[in-house]
Design a protein that fits this description.
The protein is mainly α. The chain is built from 14 helices and 8 strands. Strand 4 and strand 5 form a beta hairpin.
C-alpha cells in the first residue's frame, strides 16, 4: 500500500509538467512500470515450492535461490535482489537505445540521478523508443535498439526475477543473477564500461565456481567456455574499434567514410571466421559476421567487454579466490573515490599495459 501511495504522489507531483516535458513523461512511465513490476511480486521461494507452477518456472526459481545463497557466501551484496518473482505480462521488458555519429565512436549519453551519465536509454514504451531512434537516424547517426530482459536498480528496490529473464539455460540464468547482484556490490558512478565489464566477468566466473560447488562439472565447464568466448570477443572488439577509430580520426570525406567502413566491415567478417571464430566454443561466429558496421551497436556490446583480462589477472593474482578478489576490489574502490577505476584495477592486477577503455562517460 505504501508503494502505491508513493507512486500516486509521484504522478500527482509530476502532473503539471507531464505535458510540457518529455523527460518527465519518460520518468513517469518508468516509475509506473517499476511500480507495476513491484506490485506483482511473489516470493521466489514460494514459487520454487509451488507444485502447480510450470516446471520450468519452479526449476528456475530453485536455481535462483541457490545462486543467491552462494553469492552471499562469497561476499557479494545480494541484498533483496531476486528474492521475488514478477510476471511482466509480455515477451519484452524494455527496449534499450544507443546512438553514435557515423564518423566517431562517440556515444550519446543520458544523465540519471544517483548513477551519473550512461550511454544508453531504456524504454518501456516501444513507440517512444522507435520515435527516439528515428530522431537520431534523421540526424544521420548510427542507432541500435535492442530488447532487454532484466535491469538493476542498484539496490534501491527489491529487484525481482522477471518472467522475461527466465531461461532454461542454467548457466545463463546463474550468470545473469550473479551479474545483477554484482551491480549491488560494485558500481562506480559514471564508469559504465567498468561496471558492466566487472559484472560480466563476475557472472561467468562465479557461475563456474557455483556449479563446481554443486558437483556439476558439465555446467561448470560450459560456464568456463562461455567466459572464454567473452574474452575472445573482447579482443576482437578491441581490434575492430581500433581500426574504426583510426579511420574516423583521419578526417575522411563522406565518400572515404563510406568506403572505409565497407573495407573494415569486410575485414570484420574475415577476421570473425578466422582466427577469432575458430577459437569460439559456444558462439557461432557466422551470426556475428553478418552484422554491418554500426557504431552504436558496437559501443553497446563493448561496454560489457572492456578490460576483461584485467579482472582475470586480479583473480589469478588472488590465488583464483573469488572472495579475496571481490574483497580486494571493493576495498580499494571504497578508499579511492574520484580515481579512474581502470587505473586502480591495473595497479591491483599488476598490469603495466594500458587497458583499451571505451570512450569516457563524464558525470
Amino acid at each position: 500500500m505504501g508503494l502505491l501511495i508513493a507512486a500516486a504522489a509521484l504522478l500527482i507531483g509530476y502532473g503539471g509538467a507531464y505535458v510540457a516535458s518529455e523527460d518527465v513523461r519518460y520518468l513517469t512511465r518508468a516509475g509506473f512500470e517499476e511500480t507495476r513490476i513491484l506490485v506483482r511480486r511473489q516470493p521466489i521461494s514460494a514459487l520454487a515450492a509451488d507444485s502447480e507452477a510450470p516446471f520450468h518456472l519452479r526449476e528456475a526459481a530453485s536455481l535462483v535461490v541457490e545462486v543467491r545463497e552462494y553469492a552471499r557466501h562469497i561476499g557479494l551484496e545480494a541484498g533483496e535482489t531476486y528474492t521475488t518473482f514478477s510476471d511482466v505480462g509480455r515477451d519484452t521488458l524494455l527496449l534499450v537505445l544507443t546512438a553514435s555519429p557515423k564518423n566517431c565512436l562517440c556515444p550519446v549519453t543520458w544523465r540519471y540521478p544517483f548513477v551519473g551519465r550512461i550511454p544508453y536509454k531504456g524504454f518501456f514504451d516501444a513507440e517512444a523508443a522507435m520515435k527516439a531512434a528515428r530522431e537520431f537516424r534523421d540526424r544521420d547517426y548510427d542507432v541500435h535498439l535492442r530488447p532487454s530482459a532484466a535491469f538493476s536498480t542498484l539496490g534501491w528496490f527489491n529487484d525481482p526475477l522477471l518472467s522475461t529473464a527466465v531461461t532454461t539455460d542454467s548457466v545463463e540464468l546463474a550468470a545473469l543473477v550473479f551479474h545483477e547482484i554484482g551491480h549491488n556490490t560494485v558500481w562506480v558512478k559514471g564508469a559504465t564500461d567498468f561496471n558492466e565489464s566487472f559484472a560480466q566477468w563476475l557472472g561467468y566466473r562465479t557461475a563456474e565456481r557455483f556449479f563446481l560447488s554443486r558437483g556439476d562439472s558439465a555446467l561448470a565447464l560450459r560456464a568456463l567456455q562461455r567466459w572464454h568466448d567473452e574474452r575472445v570477443l573482447g579482443r576482437y572488439y578491441d581490434r575492430l574499434l581500433q581500426r574504426l577509430d583510426s579511420l574516423y580520426s583521419s578526417g575522411p570525406t563522406p565518400v572515404e567514410l563510406i568506403t572505409g567502413r565497407q573495407a573494415i566491415e569486410q575485414w570484420s567478417r574475415d577476421t570473425l571466421l578466422s582466427p577469432f571464430g575458430e577459437s569460439m566454443r559456444t558462439i557461432d561466429p557466422r551470426r556475428l559476421a553478418e552484422r554491418p558496421i554500426n557504431n552504436a551497436a558496437l559501443l553497446g556490446v563493448r561496454l560489457y567487454r572492456t578490460g576483461l583480462e584485467l579482472f582475470d589477472d586480479l583473480y589469478h593474482r588472488n590465488d583464483s579466490s573469488l572472495e579475496l578478489t571481490i574483497f580486494t576490489l571493493t576495498n580499494a574502490l571504497e578508499d579511492a573515490e574520484g580515481i579512474d577505476p581502470w587505473a586502480l584495477l591495473r595497479v591491483l592486477a599488476g598490469s603495466p599495459d594500458p587497458v583499451p577503455v571505451s570512450p569516457a562517460f563524464p558525470d
